[in-house]
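quick one: calcium ion bound model?
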Amino acid sequence: MPKHNADIAAIFEEIADLLEIQGANPFRIRAYRNAARILSELPQEVSRMLEKGEDLMALPGIGDDLAAKIKEIVSSGHCSLLDRLHAELPPAITELLKIPGLGPKRVQALYHDLDVQTIEQLHRAARDGRIRALPGFGEKTENNILQAVEAHANQAQRFKLAIAAQYAEALEKFLAAIPGVAHVTVAGSFRRMRETVGDLDLLLTAPAMASNQVVRRFTTYDEVAEILSAGSTRASVILKCGLQVDLRVVEEESYGAALHYFTGSKAHNIAIRRLAQQSGLKINEYGVLRNGTRIAGETEASVYAAVGLPYIPPELRENRGEIEVARIGRLPRLVEQSDLRGDLHAHTKATDGHNSLREMAQAGLTHGFEYLAITEHSRRLAFAHGLDPQQLERQCDEIDQLNAKLKGITLLKSIEVDILEDGSLDLPDSILARLDMVVGAVHSSFNLSRAKQTQRILRAMQHRYFTLLAHPSGRLIQRRAPYDIDMLRIIREAKVRGCFLELNAHPERLDLLDTQCQMAKEEGVLISINSDAHSVYDFANLRFGAGQARRGWLEKSDVLNTRPLKELRRLIGRTMS
Ligand code: DGT
Ligand code: CA
Ligand code: CA
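yep, here:
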């Protein structure tokens, strides 16, 4: 029965796809897409909100119709609208939309004219040369479709970290409640906080005699769709959402060794094992052995100690130099989410956010923030109701008035101003001058040449009021590649101009990338880990931003918003003009 946000989101996505293939009203389609996006990224489970009797209409993008549908799905596992659409169109037809180059119109034509309902049928139709004859297709399109179908078949599906977290945490809770189970840990790439995960690797400790029973309980978890394998200490299943979960049960004394093994990465493990071999040790998932005798393995720290190393945090375990720096005692002391003193990127309902200034400030307080920068979109982003200078003036007045009343948190006057194609900013200096800081972002012309795109951003950063570059690479995970820019030049310019780069913690962005964080750190440019909150719920996403920062080797001192307000003000104060 679907109960996770991601399941409900998938239903809404499918409804939107089917409506689109039917040529329904675009506004209706967009409402479902919006709701799907909001739900899949919402850190709080809506089924929990319903249990607690909370009003779903408090959520962004959810009106009474959608709220009723969510209730229907959570309580019955079904959505009658989707059932109806399934009766009208073949069940697998939305799969066709996953083929690059196939939009709803083409899918509709393929279905109508060639009775293509599945990817296999599409493949056959393309191979047999039947597609080229359709109006608006042609031989070139047919070839592209053929290539895309073949590439699609070779592509393993990965899950975004925040989505995987919804499934992982529910499963973790379920397993922890099984009698005899002591530890439950999600290891693998999930523990290393990779931005996407291929599958979940769960490690349990239980006494050997209980292990059979534990595996059986795992395979009967109600979200399991398929059991790939099941033995006495291990099993692999596929959940209804498509996510694979591998389970291993070990005894307490092997916990550290198994955790180390299943956390990976493989490259890190191999390098550690080589180190062990050099000192006559053998490491496997049960322990560290010298001449067949166990000398370590109960904790991960004991495994590292056996090879003469301090504990290495999971986010660093990619064999990117962490073992070398560990050996000389130079491991970074990674930033923690709790080090963050504020957030420098948030929207309110003045534009496309959902909550008021006061609500956002209150929510910030509960996250322990000392400050929160309000960064609405600027006028160029008309679809997000971007602000013009007069509207921004008004918001500044409101912030000043509110700040006079707020206790414990200060709102900073700011803007997420569009960087126009020529590198100029979307608002005049007269209003930017009034702000505490200016966040700049690219939201258009993603396909400029590398030289032009880089120049555009450099020029924006040279603006006297520019403070922080938002989501610098512009990529959307699994949806849009980064734009082509010379990131090192941009980082160096930031250093010269005294500006900063963002690590946007939005689950779809996680941008800067981990390796680029490392680059910024080496160049001495501070990074701001920001939520890009569009509602009070979104601050919880900072945990994924902190994870990415840790993968990028960032320490507290490398992060701008770990600074207390006073110091922050000094850093964002304009020293260059
Ligand atoms: P993923 O699932 O693709 O996001 O990435 P991982 O790192 O979770 O990889 P996965 O699930 O294939 O394996 C989990 C961990 O198990 C991996 O990080 C390290 C360990 N492991 C798997 N296969 C091997 C292997 O052949 N050799 C070694 N040393 N470790 C392995
Ligand atoms: Ca994995
Ligand atoms: Ca695995």
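The longest strand covers residues 224-230.
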